[in-house]
## 1
Amino acid sequence: MDNRMQIKGKVFKFGDSISTDHIAPGRLFHLRTNLPELAKHVLEDADTEFAQNVQPGDFVVAGKNFGLGSSREHAPTIIKIAGVGAVLAQSFARIFYRNAINVGLPVLICDTTQIDRGDELEVDVGKGEIRNVTKGITIQAKPLPDVMIKILNDGGLLEHFRKHGGFALDA
Amino acid sequence: MERSRTRLVSKTIVEKILSEHSGLDAYAGDIVVADIDAALVQDGTGPLAVQQLQKLGMEQAANPERTVLFIDHAAPSPRKELSNAHKILRDFAAKTGAILSEVDEGVCHQRMVEDYMNPGEVLIGADSHTCTAGALGAFATGMGSTDVAIGIASGKTWLRVPETIKVYVTGEFKKGVYPKDLMLHFIGMIGADGATYQSIEFCGPTIDAMDMSGRFTLANMAVEAGAKAGLFKTDETTKKYLEERGRGDRWREIAADADATYERVVEIDVTDLEPTISCPHTVDNTKTISEVVGTKVDQVFIGTCTNGRIEDLRIAAQILAGKSRNPNTRLLVCPASKEVYLQAIEEGILAKLASAGAAIINPGCGACVGVHGGILGDGEVCLATQNRNFQGRMGNTEAFIYLSSPAVAAATALEGVIADPRKYL
């Protein structure tokens, strides 16, 4: 995965405080060792039709504190398996943010108030540039920390560790 | 925050611990690769961690005697998929020498402080409430399965040294008001994202006078304010706790420097604090008891890593002894660990609670995660002593969860509606 990549897709909009229980609920705990099956239920408790309607490259766009709660890495993993190109939110909970980068799911912090459900976006992950094609505006995301760009460019933490034989996070 | 590095000498607790563990002179904002002293996974996150190590060809534990795999979230297993997930952890333990904490032993965070963690150490855990061990003056933080997997195999992790919010607490708790009320009040005040990416240091005379059980409750819920860790300095109370567990020699002084740099200071006086409740569906949606008294409750749940300790069960028993729960409200009690469970048996607490109409659940996470042991029905209301009330948390998106202290929970079990415990104390 390359962080300079361009992603194009449609928006699925969510509100504030989307928790890991919304994304990968505890009642589906038994599916955690079957991620493709768990991914069929991704975000089900926030939008029952999301998993059926999402197309590869589409975006999850949310308000504040996306991914709060549990440390379950299954949450960003199944968002990625569902084909989501990137998650855009005004802010992320810490563990979700780190997990997303570790599993190679781009996450961008930006003003999402001018993005609505169904809008078409073009996102340049490396530049943090979000073009809202539907509304004809461009939104700038906060740049990812250097460490996270390194991990994301390597394709996630596992690949980073494999490639370098350890942590290689120095500038 | 821009800092002039050369002039900095004073450090917060987290800056000290992460400097020691990285060999760097580290301050907030720095990225460090730190040695870890201990690591934990549980049955919801551990199987994925093991699978990641298998992919990496590194099915190993750098420090097996302090790598602990807990079967607590679905314990004993309620379904075959989870029984198979448990096997992955048992096999990994057998292969690497890592410690397996079985279905009888209790919640990971309570077990870590009882048996494994010491002041000044670094713990990473694949569970968000790993921050509980911060009460012992350790840096303890929750991460995902892959981060912890790599920590287990290599003995290291990368961290951004967090800024610290100092929470300075004064005043004496009035009767019927507890550290849980303080923590819910604090989270309501700063918000569920009020401390995101930062650590919290709890200090002040109220904290100095607080027992370890109360400190664990505060540290446990640091993540509910978005924090990376919740830390305490060590003192005689910490020392006594370790001595009682045969680890008196592991006590050491941990404290921030007097002029350390804080992101901000939050002062709280608990003198007039009232029993506080988090209302559905976020922890920061807090109200004082008088605003919610009378709300009908179908299930009361006392337990978890937040409030399932012996001190919590004693309070519940004090209120419920010789009485009966409301016939329309079921009561579940789940001691946090086997040690707590045995102590509660010895003190006659479980007999009192069972006689009052409690269903006693084996030590573990119990009903908190929505996997087993008390899943809610459509439209039902639960009042629980746990740390989280997100929609769907207890297995049903159509249910409503309130959070409180064990005292409020016990009083509520008696009345069948949210009740003020102070009249029973």
## 2
Amino acid sequence: MTAPLSRRSLLLQVAGLGVSVSFLGGSAFAADGAMARRKLVVVICRGGMDGLTVSPPVGDPDYAALRGAVAVAPDQALKLDGTFGLHPALQSVHALALKGQARIAPAIASPDRARSHFEAQDVLETGAAQVYGVSTGWLNRTLEVMGPSRVEGLSVGATAPLILRGKVQAASWSPGKGVDETARLPTLLQDLYKADPLMGPAFARGLETEAMAQAAMTALNPAPVPVSTDTTAMNGSGMAPQVAASPPMAQDARAIAGQRQGREAARKLGATLAGFMVQDGGPRIAAISLDGWDTHAGQVGQLNTRLSYLDAVLDGLNTGLGDEWRNTVVVAATEFGRTARVNGTGGTDHGTGSTALVLGGRLKAGGIIGDWPSLKQEALFENRDVRPTLDMRGLFKGVLADHLGVDRAALDATVFPDSADAKPVTDLV
Amino acid sequence: MGKQRAQGKTGDARETNGVSLPSNDLMAAIAATRFGLGARPGEIDAARDDPRGFLAAQIRPEGADQPQGGEDSAQRLAEVSDYQMQKRDAKAAQKDMGGDAKSAPVKDLQKDLRDQAGDDFLARARLGATTDAAFRERWALFWANHFTVSATSLAVGAVAGPFEREAIRPHVFGRFEDLLVASSTHPAMLLYLDQAQSVGPNSRAAQYQRKAGKTAGGLNENLAREILELHTVGVDAGYHQADVTEFARAMTGFSIGRPKDPSPHRFLFRDNAHEPGARTVMGRRYAQEGQAQALAVMRALAASPHTAYHLATKLAVHFVSDTPPPALVARLRKAYLDSDGRLDEVARALVAAPEAWDPVAAKFKTPYEFAISTWRSVDAQPSGIDKLAPVLTGLGQKPFSAPSPKGWADEAQVWCAPDALIKRLRFSEGFAAVVADRLDPSLLAQTALGARLTPPVAKAVARAETRREAMALLLMSPEFQRR
């Protein structure tokens, strides 16, 4: 009983953070030698992550005045170069940066300029030049162009992110008691779902993922975590009366109160993801979502917490991947940055350019990715935001081309439609 | 094609503009499942004579039903304010004495507030599980989701339930403009989207603050942006950043009374926080003073054809299909514009539209719809929030916690994820374990799905090894999961 119980307990804590994980991987990679071990993880930070807090340009002469109360103090920032530092919560990222295994792209944006979360996330995840251009995700199309592939997928959190939606079936997984796929009920249901184009494949994938999750958790082999049944989101019977379940908001409070625990859980999430990826035939492409970056008010405390989670997830990935870290590239990106000026409520509003983090053992050392436009008033985009100097698609294309060997023509036309103008960033790996 | 089929039935008026309608039996089942919240025993029979009339009779000027109980938002915010004060005092005491920052009374207050939010949600779920007018309830739920407030803080959680009761339910069959104003002036929305703190940079309040050497408050454009993008004209309406900022300036002053103000914990327009001067939003100039200015902008937004199209599309997606027939959207849009934004007329147009009665059940139930429909199928209701909240949280729809101001997604692709199906199966097995032993599963399949029940599912239910297995199969069948 110990193993499944600790698995549930662990992932329940993770689920409380508003985190979801999804995997895509395929045997297409296994066919081609050196590429066979290459891995890519995309972290989507939803809500508009403030680049000027992630990698504060403390050496930029206009930074402190524009940012006022939400500025990171120069002596607090973890130094990267004469201009940039990292937010003090990003300790693991900073340690990697000192080894040349983490870099920042401090003025990056998708092609979307509407400052709408929903539109900008769609553009980020579909890889289209504009909203409503495409209805499938670019990670899904990446696998499509790499050849017929078998997908292993999982998401912690019950919904499917757009970046993984498409022709290739992606899966999802979140904590709960597993289902034995050889039991009578699943078999009968698979029969009833035969004619349903949505439920049939989804249910089959759900059953497979259950088996895979067991294997991942065994690979991770966590120390047993004490089980507290009162946070059980879904219990065996679904409504067992003996469970003293919490009222709706109680779990949030616990997450806040246990910020340390949260960081530990986030690290385990990263390590669990790594546990999936190091399996033979396991996923080589994964996407994680981290919510909660929309900081219109009281930004300092919120970002402290969120960046601490992000750092812990990345740290868990790094340590969990072990030797495989050298075959891995991780990109953390957001739909847009935030206003260069602090607003009237201790926060910032929707902006344009932000920071992407690029990490991995295969990374070539180097300075910032793309140019820094500075924060001079005349340099700001629409006198308001960090002016983007790098197209997000160029960064992703560079990674897909040089790291995973995706063909340039396919990148320009299929993975990122109509994107020939967005040149791949070279010399990343 | 539909025409030929309809011509076969002589004298039958089952055709409107070339779209044929299904039989009364099938329409009755669709009325209860697609437009309602899943059939209770007897509901499909009640709808059989006149399925469209059965739904139209649920539309009424006084709005939606109200869930039982619950304090109003001002009382709740007073409790939140008490809690915050006591917490501050306890913190100060801790500094002096080195005691526990969260004393027992402070924790109790916090727990009370959370319990009340749980009670609100449970009362709403019980209404959904028991109402005879489930179309009316679904219509109200649509608008509550359209004007989402999500429990991102203790305060918003405390007033999410009252918001629905006070700002949404009374107005869902009235004019959209009134619903928009009720939502945009309710403390829950003003808190959730940061409007309460927004201050005009040139307002008297900001000037006093600067004179006093304090950091002056400033503009927060969050609510203004979401009203444009999500609540009214939609992101494609051709507005720009400058329109958002101008609207945000017009809305400065929309706030909540503090304990010593004349309307404590209720909407208060603070004239001294209002940005002076005329505003231009989407090409129209607004020279009004005070709160009349933002209200005039809202009236213009409500009257916009962009809003009519945005709402018509969203309603068609919610009720009928993720890719709705353009003819249906056009009907709803026309009903909105012809009636000056009357939502009862839009509801009537939806029920009357033949495209809304397509026999194919294209929609996949959200977790809330699924859970409520299971209780309805056995004529029961959730007995406690502890039976409901963990289930919904596990299925990805935590109570009062939509992931963003956009609200819960409506598309099948989002909810019909592999893991979600496994979770639904676990829930169905657990539910069946509690209720199935006293029921006749084959009869239940008939009362829950009526003419929508297909032979393979009827057969699987009839041949199941146990009543529990039969019940779980029914709840997990494509017919029950879809609507």
## 3
Amino acid sequence: MSQTFAFENKQDFLDKLTQLVKSGVSAKQISLNTPYHVHEVEHILRIKPSAMRFFAAIGALSGTVAGYAFTIFTVFHWPIITSGKPLISVPPYTIIAFALTILFGALISFSGFLILSRLPSMKGITATEEHENRFVIVIDNEDKS
Amino acid sequence: MKTFSLNYIMLIAAMIIVAAVIFGLEQFVTPEQHGSLLLTLVFWVALVQGCIALVAAAELSNAKWILPLKKYLFSVYPLMLLITALFVIVGAQIDMYPWMNGHQDAWLNQPFFIIRSVVMLLLSFVFAHLFVRASLREQKNKNRFAALYVLMFVITQSLVAFDWVMSLEHPWISTLFGGYFFIEATYMAIGVSTFFCYFLLRSEGGKDNSAYQKTLRDTSTLLFGFSLFWAGMFFAQYLTIWYGNLPEEVIYIYERVSTQPFKSISAVVLLCLFFFPFTVLLSRKVKLIAPIMMFISLVIMAGVMLERYLFIAPVTSTVTIEFGMVGIEFALLLVMFVFAVMSRERTLKQPS
Amino acid sequence: MQMNQTNYFNELERDVLSAMKKPNMSYWAALGFSASLLLMWALCWGYQIKEGLYVTGINNPVGWGIYLTNFVFWVGIAHSGTLISAVLYLFRAKFRNSFNRTAEAMTIIAIMVAGLFPIIHLGRMWKFYWLLPYPNQRLLWVNFRSPLVWDVFAVSTYFIVSLVFFYVGLVPDLAIVKRHVKGIRQRVYSILSLGWTGSLRQWVHYNKLYMFLAAFATPLVISVHSVVSWDFAMSITPGWHTTIFAPYFVAGAIFSGTAMVLTLVIPMRKILSLEKYITVDKFEGIAKVLLFTSLIVTYAYIVEFGIASYSDNIYELSIFKYRMVGDYRVIYWIMICCNSLIPMTLFVKKLRRNLVYLFILSIFVNIGMWSERFNIIISSLSHEYMPYAWGLYRPSFIEIGIFVGSFGMFFTFFLIFLKLLPVLAMSEIKEEAE
């Protein structure tokens, strides 16, 4: 058994949401659909900060390490001095490490997003029901426990 | 509690006294020890000019976060007069520049060297004054003065970089030196802003200060961005010189990384200006804690001071710069800086 | 705030998506023209592959002709996309959402066009993969100290990250498109939208992801053109070996890219009747970016020349004099006029808000920035240290054909983009419309 409220205006939507939360509906029961991200919702429902930053940090760090490790490993694989530069030339390798930091950071953040927001979702792709451009609150009254 | 403050005339009087004291002190310095005043000046000229430039840049890009800090940052602009006066004293010690002994050309000669810097410093004072007035009165043409001030800032900081500092090592060149200096000046001004954020938050302790929290967060984020930007500027210069490996170019770096104490100082500078602020500011929470932000800013400013020492010291004196002298002069300017900020309500008062 | 936001949103979607309807004759004409230029590009390159590099004008000492000029030019064009999407996003500049989608698409297309030029420049282009770091038969790795390898890393990272950024920005909009189309297209768009429903969980993480991608892309955009500049600055060639090159190239890249955005968006706005969403105010914002970067570039011109005269380095000074009065002086003065003098007119507010003027100016800037790269590359190579080894360069017809054809490729892809994807970031405009 679920209840659906649809609004054509953000303020009405927020008012209703605040009222629902005050009347004791837990955040777990509420699911929302909005045409854009309504920042106030995070406050009202006390959403925990997104875990995205861990993915970003791990991605970036692994990129830096990979960049230095890769360049240094390969240069010792066949040690040959070119243009009078030392074998471990930190400044040029920093450029490679930097590029990989960004690359890994971006890609792992993106994968993190897919994991956290459960995308791609077959349910969403095949869904026929549409909320169009309304602000929608769905309350799931079923007791899941 | 009524806090200590000065009006404009008293501030100018105080500046005259400070200038006179420093002039007196400099008479006791032997030519081998010249450089302490130059070092003090290249630090403070960046900080004072940077403060106004930060507001000007923010106004030009319609940034709102700067508004609570505006008065604090503006209040230091009269110090540009003091800096101009002190630069004239440096002009008397011009013998420390190597090109004075060789041939002087159309650009590097004693009179032109002093005149162009003094003129630019005075012009940036004038435009700062016009900009401050227009901005506080919310005049329509404030953006025009903001743009003009930024122009003066860029030219003056480039002169500071190319003339005051780079020509110490004539004919060594780095075309990015000017840009590097005005980025550093802005970097320091953002650092100082975190102090002002702290005062704002404290003075409004009981009230709703979420606006100031926002300003602090934006200032901190900008400081983080600039730490990376600074690293980019540093790297662009270092890499080009390192890779080219031309004797006349690498000598500058070689002098500064091969002998003690410069070797250790170089490492400390990198730590202070990039590795430390960057790593700490990665954390989101730190950006909202004013005391930690102030500490980071202090580290950054110490880093800039040490870096400028590194630029100047290997050239100006055969031994080292007189530390006591730098200490006194630095302290005097610091006191004036604090006075100027404390007197902001009176010096910036605008007849409506 | 509007009383009924939903109606406004529906109207917005209708207006933006009507651009994706069946194309009219003028669209087909434009596409046909671009495609024929693209065909010319393919024929010229095919001829060059068959005959070898002698069909070009490159010679000794000028080994880098307009192929490399074009490479730098197109990489530069790519930069404004990231600037407008990422940097302005972080600075919360309101005018960005009128341009970011177009600019991002432009970035992707321009990197693809740019990436081909170093390959075109190769004598045996089929060996291009030698640049990639992989263990070959002799167990040799690439030389990571070579700026050309940095380029491979920087440009391919830039391409991948821009693509991810572009796609992530598109996801909510693709879900909108899905609602408005039927049949097989609906299937395709719903798969591309990954099943986006706009639920709270999706938005929370999405918002963070977008912020992180912007934070990653901002230093990246600065690093990519720095690396391109280091292709030159790492050498000891006079006029190339100078520390200001990295920031100067970055500013120049953003300058030219922003100009290209104007060149594309001003006609697009007119043809697709998007005047309501891309307002003149927003153009003024872009015009200010153009003016700002023009001033940085001008500063770099002055400093480069000033420092060359300040130092006692005769080689450095002679190359700058050569650029001004030597064989390529026309290109030099075109560069000064188009990049420094004409953009100064943007100090006048009226001109910043005059779209016809902005359009004409943007074309001048494109010409100026191409001339700048030509001027840097060719003049320095033709007058290096030893007078005995001086020489001149003139592009051949094949090179010019490939250069002009690259515009055909760019515009062909861009026109296809207009019909396949929404040209405005609708979800962001909805958010801003509050």
